[in-house]
Write a structure and sequence with these properties.
Helix content: 25-40%
Strand content: 15-25%
Distance between the termini: 18 Å
Number of helices: 19
Radius of gyration: 23 Å
Length: 557
């Protein structure tokens, strides 16, 4: 039997008109701004004027990712469809994919199989232009900064202490470290510079955490772009840039409405990476999903130690959100990989490797239950090669922690394959919860770092490099010590070493650099070898992507 690719499944489906999806979600025509027949933006005024009580908030997260895949977005979409099949009013809220991974490794990120959001080609490529607007706003600020220096530098900016980079939504290692402004006096001031990928830009984080245009402008104005010779921060407001930046972002701030293959309303908005940023869709989209649905299903990027930790410790803290239930997605294949099985052997039954890999899942579950105090269910994303003995072992180990494991077959069956998971989520949403954060934001920077490493990663502690120690002191003196922490860390391990799989112990996490994102409202701790501009792999996914004479795209997974 020929297995259809994700893009084949998506292209064979006939979507409903976006006006019908909006009507199903209770969105009036007044708030709908159509981008063709299959996608639209929603005016955030809806949040001010809608009176329905908020629905239940469900967070979907996952084990530490592996090359075997976990299917977090697929599970998120399938769960929402499963809730709809139970007669529940569910709305899903997801991040927008970045072009970097689409052309680099993933080849697409809109779910998979029969649990996808569509139109998947649009969502994976330019969509409604949000990322372009974010890149333009970021680079406008960079241009105004360099122009100010060129035109006399009235603010006394030290070009050795410029903190703002340009950005592009592409994996391009060539742009990590550059020298620009060369060519003579009229071509700018020569200096070291560099690019971040757009999803790592603070403008992305600001957009995702802003509640409206005034809040957006305030946050943009607080962005620190450089320091003076005396060590004083220079902000976007000092450069009079926030108004023009907000003008570029006014439409990007509005959430995007699309649909799942089964017609469930889906809000796809914002896309910060979880390994180098805070890894969540916009607060506006999440709040809108809560306002429109009785159940709002959202996800956080990569493993629960990254995306979920930041969702809970940063996004929920800032937005006043409390999840009612958390889903941790795992696959038998990925757990065997954590247990030492080779990728080529993951399709064979191997209870020994599975048992060795299970501590990774159990640590994530224990964090959700006992660090954050939230009800939790494990979703086992089914593969045809899973055996009954393997599935029984995962379920038994979860029961020992007092957590149910539900088999999720949404890739093959869509919402029907998510009914068992949906039933458990509905039950969990009525369970008592004692939500708490992993650290006190008022604690010293070093203490917050220690708490994350010890409580969430289960390491021995955080080690600050001399440069990071100095930065922690400076940031505290500047009044930024009370901000939450956004850890920039490898997604492949609880530690900062991607080779340490499973649930390692006896390690420390080295923080080599600390920087403030004053507009977003958090401190970024760069650990290990993490970079804010990825590179393409040896064989990029872009090599397989093509379009025919009729405009039909192929090669998106």
């Amino acid at each position: 039997m020929t297995i259809k690719s994700d893009i084949q499944i998506a292209q064979e489906h006939v979507p409903e008109h976006i006006a019908q999806i909006a009507a199903r979600a209770g969105i009036g025509e007044t708030y709908l701004e159509q981008y063709g027949n299959c996608k639209a933006k929603i005016d955030y005024a809806l949040l001010r004027e809608r009176k329905k009580p908020d629905g239940k908030l469900i967070l979907v997260t996952a084990i530490t990712p592996t090359p075997a895949g976990e299917g977090k977005t697929t599970t998120t979409v399938g769960l929402a469809d499963g809730l709809r099949r139970l007669g529940k009013n569910a709305v899903v809220a997801l991040r927008e994919p970045s072009l970097g991974p689409v052309f680099g490794v993933k080849g697409g990120a809109a779910g998979g199989g029969y649990a996808q959001v569509i139109p998947m080609e649009d969502i994976n490529l330019h969509f409604t232009g949000d990322f372009h607007a974010i890149g333009a706003a970021n680079n406008l600020l960079a241009a105004m900064l360099d122009n100010h220096i060129q035109q006399g530098n009235a603010l006394g900016i030290d070009i050795k202490q410029i903190a703002w980079k340009r950005c592009v939504d592409m994996n391009d290692r060539q742009l990590r470290h550059i020298i620009d402004g060369i060519g003579g006096r009229m071509q700018g001031v020569p200096r070291e510079d560099g690019f971040d990928i757009t999803v790592a830009s603070e403008v992305m984080a600001v957009l995702c955490l802003s509640s409206d245009i005034p809040d957006l402008k305030r946050r943009l104005g607080r962005i620190i772009v450089a320091y003076t010779y005396e060590g004083r921060p220079v902000t976007a407001h000092d450069l009079k840039a926030e108004g023009a930046m907000a003008a570029l972002l006014k439409d990007a701030l509005k959430p995007n409405l699309v649909q799942t293959l089964e017609g469930t309303p889906a809000l796809v908005h914002g896309g910060p990476f979880a390994n180098i940023a805070h890894g969540c869709n916009s607060v506006t989209a999440t709040r809108m999903a809560l306002a429109l649905g009785d159940y709002a299903v959202t996800e956080a990027g990569f493993g629960a130690d990254l995306g979920a930790e930041k969702f809970l410790d940063i996004k929920c803290r800032m937005a006043g959100l409390t999840p009612d239930a958390v889903v941790v997605v795992a696959t038998v294949r990925a757990l065997k990989h954590h247990g030492g099985a080779a990728k080529a052997d993951l399709g064979r039954e191997d209870l020994t490797a599975l048992e060795k890999g299970l501590p990774n899942l159990l640590q994530h579950v224990d964090n959700i239950k006992n660090v954050y105090g939230l009800p939790c269910v494990v979703a086992i994303n089914a593969f045809p090669t899973d055996t009954k003995a393997e599935l029984d072992l995962v379920e038994a180990k979860c029961r020992e922690l007092g957590v149910c494991a539900a088999l999720s077959e949404v890739w093959a069956k869509g919402g029907e394959g998510g009914i068992a998971l949906a039933e458990e989520v509905v039950r969990l949403c009525e369970e008592p919860k004692n939500f708490r954060f992993a650290y006190d934001e008022k604690a010293p920077i070093e203490k917050k770092l220690e708490d994350i490493v010890q409580k969430v990663y289960r390491g021995d502690g955080a080690v600050l490099a001399p440069n990071a120690k100095k930065q922690a002191q400076q940031l505290t003196e500047l009044g930024f010590g009370d901000l939450p922490i956004c850890m920039a860390k490898t997604q492949y391990s609880f530690s900062d070493d991607p080779a340490l799989l499973g649930a390692p112990r006896g390690f420390t996490v080295t923080v080599r650099n600390l920087k403030v994102c004053a507009g977003a409202g958090f401190l970024v701790a760069l650990t290990g070898d993490i970079m804010t501009m990825p590179g393409l792999p040896k064989v990029p996914a872009a090599e397989k992507i093509d379009v025919d004479e009729d405009g039909r795209i192929t090669g998106l997974f």
